[in-house]
Amino acid sequence: MGATATIVVDTNVLLNLATPVVDGRSNAQTGADPLMAVLTSYDVHVLASVLGEISEATGSDDLLSVAADAGVSASDHLTTHAVESDLDGPLEYGLDPGESHGIRLANEIDAEMFVTDEFNTTNYLLVSLTLADRNALFTTPHVLWALAEHGVITGEYVDSALTYYVETKDWDRECVERFRHNHLW
């Protein structure tokens, strides 16, 4: 993939990337580990609070908890940052503190990507407006597709994973179909 891009990811992205790998149900995707693909293909940065949220989700045997366990196990592949808690300007309007601090971190470290799964919401627009011009706003589907474009995972895996996310995570079908139309076909 060339030079390793620096990215900032939020909690949901890490959990969404881990879910298909730890899901033992028949509709779960096989053949790739999107979490490890991201962690080994990018220089991944997170807020300390992201690791805290993932750690809090561990401890039971439900799918979210098992995905959180995978996230905690992979934490040695993450660069963790503490971000000041005071927020100002557009970062405090409509976004939760985790998203706001993640945007601040992406801006401070000149990350090439800020990855969040706030697509098809007003928050996506707010995140887009508050990122510095040098940062690109990505979602899990975008990151998966970037990995496929670089031969890390297959396009077929991305297509199957998108179906999995729509069926199991209630991702917006129309948004995913638009993404497929623009990137996969």
Radius of gyration: 16 Å
Structural class: alpha/beta
Distance between the termini: 22 Å
Largest sheet: 5 strands, parallel
CATH architecture: 3-Layer(aba) Sandwich
Structure summarized in a few sentences:
The protein is an alpha/beta fold and 185 residues long. The chain has nine helices and five strands. It has helices at residues 11-22, 34-41, 48-56, 63-73, 97-108, 122-130, 140-149, 155-169, 173-183, and strands at residues 6-9, 43-47, 78-81, 113-115, 136-138.
Description:
The chain is built from nine helices and five strands. The protein is α/β, with parallel strands linked by helices. The protein has a single domain, classed as 5'-nuclease (Rossmann fold, 3-Layer(aba) Sandwich), CATH 3.40.50.1010. A five-stranded parallel β-sheet has the order 3-2-1-4-5. Strand 4, helix 6 and strand 5 form a beta-alpha-beta unit. Helix 7 packs antiparallel against helix 8. The chain is globular, with a radius of gyration of 16 Å. The mean pLDDT is 83.
